[in-house]
């Protein structure tokens, strides 16, 4: 017989550990397990091993509200975040509940329960919670550059960074201009002969302090009090700047530029390489702590080239204008591939479920799919802010079902216009829009990118609205079994 749990959580990363903590805190006695495909917890922070890997959100909001971040860096290094996740799991008694090396491939709903198929056996559960994020861990995005076979150097993708890669004294070209690229360039520059960031078009890059002066000043207060104050400050600043970007994009762009000029006082360089044609927050904003990218450019250890690639040649990369960038190592920081619901093949009562044909219910569940939740973060704020709201909502829904003797909860879509779930123009988002659920035009079928709104409404949301509940099946009589 398959092992059965009240709740199965898919993924032991930042979201999965947070979900388990909330489940233990708010529903003691609920049986659960976390199914993790990899051999270690941490998710993104265990997968990415490239030089300088760090958060692109401040840790006081990316960290868990129930276990305040106490590090001294606002944008922390990947290994520090990984330790934080592991310590949280250990402190919460969660680690023994993780089944490592257990990749979920399919989940089938029938007879008021999920049957979950993995590479390490089959499980059943009453409720399935997918906390695997939306990255494809097995495949990064890699364009098919002409002439790759001619290149005599080393080509690497940040998602699969080879251990022991030697780039000391070598010429490095980083293709890309997103968060990964702006992290790699200043991290590799001190050892490399020179690092060139080759971008097709400019990206908005925001200079942020590496340490939060307010957090430092509040260290004398009890940790939870200080954490709440710093979180509130950072949330208000971030959400305020996002609103400014939406309503007055020119003003927001001027703020970003002014901060960049404090680190690289070269207006012409900024005009050429850091002045995009799109508005701030049309794509996810890249943040550089203490302006380290601009520092590397200023001291000459790094530079930026804005041009299109013609093809790879033996000695490097030839641009469309004919110029050749010499390279010993090329890092293809060209983006990620997205994968909805952890790539799990879903079936409900024998019918295959295509997430792209479904509508997101409160940004947590799928229309027409019973007892399934998924966790997805904000595009304009720290992932954990929305994730924790989702965890708390799932706990409320489960408690409501218990109180009323319900076995199933299925969101029932209201007909109306649909639009994409994710609202960014970034290439990695646009390439995957047709794979993801959509959203409607009214609550509870819209997914707002506003934590201030959600933190007020989600904890009070009516779990009954547009939800069809089903009773627990009657117990089978002994005579029927015979």
Automatic annotation (TrEMBL):
Keywords from the UniProt entry: FAD, Flavoprotein, Monooxygenase, NADP, Oxidoreductase
Molecular function in Gene Ontology: monooxygenase activity
InterPro entries: FAD-binding_MO, FAD/NAD-bd_sf
Taxonomic superkingdom: Bacteria
Cofactor(s) this protein requires: FAD
PANTHER family reported for this sequence: MONOOXYGENASE, PUTATIVE (AFU_ORTHOLOGUE AFUA_8G02570)-RELATED (PTHR43872:SF1)
Family: Belongs to the FAD-binding monooxygenase family.
Protein name according to UniProt: Cation diffusion facilitator CzcD-associated flavoprotein CzcO
Organism listed in the record: Pseudosporangium ferrugineum
């Amino acid at each position: 017989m398959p092992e059965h749990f009240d709740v199965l959580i898919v993924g032991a990363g930042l979201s999965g550990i947070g979900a388990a903590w909330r489940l233990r805190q708010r529903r003691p006695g609920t049986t659960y397990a976390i199914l993790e495909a990899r051999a270690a917890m941490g998710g993104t922070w265990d997968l990415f091993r490239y030089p300088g890997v760090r958060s692109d959100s401040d840790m006081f909001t990316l960290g868990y509200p129930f276990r305040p971040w106490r590090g001294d860096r606002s944008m922390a290094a990947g290994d520090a975040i990984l330790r934080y996740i592991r310590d949280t799991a250990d402190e919460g008694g969660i680690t023994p509940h993780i089944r490592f090396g257990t990749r979920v491939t399919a989940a089938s709903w029938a007879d008021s329960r999920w049957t979950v198929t993995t590479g390490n056996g089959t499980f059943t559960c009453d409720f399935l919670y997918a906390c695997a994020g939306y990255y494809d861990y097995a495949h990064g995005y890699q364009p098919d550059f002409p002439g790759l076979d001619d290149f005599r150097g080393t080509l690497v993708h940040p998602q699969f960074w080879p251990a022991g890669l030697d780039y000391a004294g070598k010429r490095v070209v980083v293709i890309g201009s997103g968060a990964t690229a702006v992290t790699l360039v200043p991290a590799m520059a001190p050892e490399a002969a020179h690092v060139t960031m080759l971008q097709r078009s400019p990206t908005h890059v925001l200079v942020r302090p590496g340490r939060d002066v307010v957090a430092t000043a509040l260290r004398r207060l009890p940790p939870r009090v200080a954490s709440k104050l710093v979180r509130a400050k950072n949330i208000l600043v971030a959400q305020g700047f996002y609103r400014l970007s939406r309503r007055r994009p020119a003003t927001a762009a001027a703020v970003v530029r002014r901060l960049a000029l404090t680190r690289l006082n070269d207006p012409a360089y900024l005009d050429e390489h850091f002045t995009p044609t799109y508005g701030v927050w049309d794509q996810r904003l890249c943040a550089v702590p203490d302006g380290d990218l601009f520092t590397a450019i200023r001291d000459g250890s790094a530079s930026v080239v804005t041009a299109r690639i013609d093809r790879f040649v033996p000695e490097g990369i030839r641009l469309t204008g004919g110029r050749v960038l010499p390279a010993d190592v090329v890092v293809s920081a060209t983006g990620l591939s997205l994968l909805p619901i952890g790539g799990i093949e879903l079936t409900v009562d024998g019918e295959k479920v295509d997430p792209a044909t479904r509508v997101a219910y409160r940004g947590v569940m799928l229309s027409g799919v019973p007892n399934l939740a998924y966790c997805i973060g904000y595009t304009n704020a720290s992932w954990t802010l929305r994730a924790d709201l989702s965890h708390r909502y799932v706990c409320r829904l489960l408690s409501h079902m218990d109180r009323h003797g319900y076995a199933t909860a299925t969101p029932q879509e209201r007909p109306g216009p649909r639009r994409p779930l994710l609202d960014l123009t970034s290439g990695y988002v646009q390439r995957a829009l047709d794979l993801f659920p959509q959203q409607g035009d009214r609550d509870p079928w819209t997914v707002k990118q506003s934590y201030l709104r959600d933190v007020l409404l989600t904890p009070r949301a009516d779990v009954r609205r547009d939800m069809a509940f089903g009773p627990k099946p009657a117990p089978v009589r002994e005579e029927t079994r015979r």
